[in-house]
Design goal:
With 446 residues, this protein is mainly α. Among the domains are: 126 residues, Tetratricopeptide repeat domain (Serine Threonine Protein Phosphatase 5, Tetratricopeptide repeat, Alpha Horseshoe), CATH 1.25.40; 70 residues, Serine Threonine Protein Phosphatase 5, Tetratricopeptide repeat, CATH 1.25.40.10; 54 residues, no CATH class. It is 77% helix and 0% strand. It has 23 helices and no strands. Helix 8 packs antiparallel against helix 9 and helix 10 runs antiparallel to helix 11. It is globular. Pfam families: TPR_16, TPR_7. This is Tetratricopeptide repeat protein. It comes from Adhaeribacter swui. Keywords: Plasmid, TPR repeat.
Length: 446
């Protein structure tokens, strides 16, 4: 009897101790990820002063009230935006994800908060290229609220990246019907682009630009994207106008500087191009600017400079991988185009293919890798998947022409190559150069 009483008393004490510990620590969480000081030109703007003050206010509030989940979500949003502005993806996206996970772990009764936090998680997963996870998280958000436009945006993006293009179109249409704005128009534009409707893509992206507020990062992004659409069609004058418009509103917007750098390369003004790419890379650590510099140095025969920049580029992408940012497709293209190493490129491309075998960009990369390895039949199998949306992207059409030519249909192959050069006469790649040579050879035989 005494023994049973002892066990009962011990159990009661354990329960009481557990309740006390729960009450003591229920509002405690991991340390708040600190804000990092910006570097370079973006550290001297009034926008940065306002952003820093707002973030520091949220951090102070969370130190005083660790259980304030709404402030925690606002801080996560701020860090997601800071990742976009600064390019410090390896730090800010994991930091934002930590904050969002802490909110979702609490399972708050506030369904609006749960929905917004779940959408935020899916958005971060998309930014980290964790596309299958993002789709799953987006579906969880949809179960909470099927009337919010944002959830259809993340479901559209996830389906696009996974190669589920019909589903992506349905999600974009739903988003646009709920909230026709910059975010929905830009998604409609991309879907039109990959389905071969470049005029429609430009029209939709112009709507996105018109819907934006001048000076905001999102507006700068869609304006530069509109410029890149013009650039892809060979309309360099219109592209330049969009990049300059962006810089007039956001003087340190690195992607606009990068766009002008690409135009300078096309116009063979290599000194200006190098200056612009270097300036852009000095603003944010975006790998594409280093990629452009490596390509430029290689074209100029500056081998040592190209090798050093390539090493920095690969080191940065490895840091991204370590932070959970999946960049295997980017690495595949870099090793193929800049490293001239199809074997190494294949290793990365196959890893990405196993994650998302239906994505047209992944299949295009594999088609080009096998083409470079002179395995034209295998290249053709991946090309079939890469061209199934009827994309009119010039380099894809050129690749299709080259593979068709080498598989024996030289007339159709030459026709496709010529078509790609009409779609974008300013191509300057290994494929376009080879394609032009084959076309000239075919013409000389006539």
């Amino acid at each position: 009897m005494k023994k049973n009483y002892f066990y009962t008393a011990s159990l009661v004490l354990l329960v009481i101790a557990g309740i006390v510990l729960f009450q003591k620590y229920q509002n405690q969480s991991k340390p708040i990820p600190p804000l990092r000081e910006r570097q370079g030109p973006i550290s001297t703007t009034s926008e940065w002063l306002n952003t820093k003050a707002a973030i520091q206010g949220l951090q102070r509030k969370l130190r005083e009230q660790p259980g304030d989940l709404k402030s925690k979500l606002l801080l996560a949003f701020a860090y997601m935006q800071e990742a976009r502005v600064t390019g410090e993806h390896p730090y800010y996206y994991p930091a934002a994800l930590q904050l969002v996970e802490e909110i979702l772990d609490r399972e708050p009764d506030d369904q609006v908060l749960m929905y917004e936090a779940t959408v935020a998680k899916a958005t971060i997963q998309l930014s980290l290229h964790q596309f299958a996870k993002a789709l799953k998280t987006g579906k969880a958000a949809l179960e909470i609220n099927d009337r919010g436009a944002a959830v259809y945006g993340v479901l559209c993006d996830a389906n696009v990246e996974l190669g589920h293009y019909e589903e992506a179109i349905a999600m974009a249409d739903k988003m646009a019907s709920l909230r026709p704005d910059l975010k929905s128009y830009s998604r409609v534009s991309y879907l039109r682009e990959i389905n071969g409707d470049m005029p429609g893509a430009i029209e939709a992206m112009q709507l996105a630009v018109d819907a934006g507020f001048p000076g905001l990062e999102q507006t700068a992004w869609v304006t530069v994207t509109l410029g890149s659409l013009y650039e892809k069609t060979g309309d360099l004058k219109s592209a330049e106008a969009q990049y300059n418009q962006t810089l007039a509103q956001s003087p340190n917007y690195a992607f606009a500087l990068g766009g002008l750098g690409r135009l300078a390369v096309k116009q063979k003004d290599y000194q200006t191009a190098e200056k612009l790419f270097t300036q852009a890379a000095g603003i944010i650590p975006e790998f594409s600017f280093q990629e452009e510099l490596v390509r430029l140095y290689q074209q100029q025969g500056r081998t040592l400079k190209a090798q050093a920049t390539m090493e920095d580029l690969l080191k940065g992408l490895e840091e991204d991988q370590e932070a959970g940012h999946v960049v295997d497709l980017e690495l595949a293209n870099i090793h193929l185009h800049l490293g001239k190493d199809p074997a190494k490129a294949l290793l990365y491309a196959l890893k990405e293919y196993h994650r998302r075998p239906d994505n047209i960009d992944v299949c295009k990369a594999l088609a080009e890798i096998y083409y470079q390895k002179r395995d034209y039949r295998t290249a053709a199998t991946y090309l079939k998947k890469a061209t199934r949306t009827s994309s009119q992207e010039a380099s894809l059409v050129c690749l299709e022409g080259l593979i068709t030519y080498h598989l024996g249909d030289q007339v159709q192959g030459a026709h496709l190559i010529q078509k790609s050069l009409v779609l974008n006469p300013y191509q300057n790649t290994t494929l376009s150069t080879e394609g032009q040579q084959l076309v000239n050879k075919a013409i000389s035989k006539i």
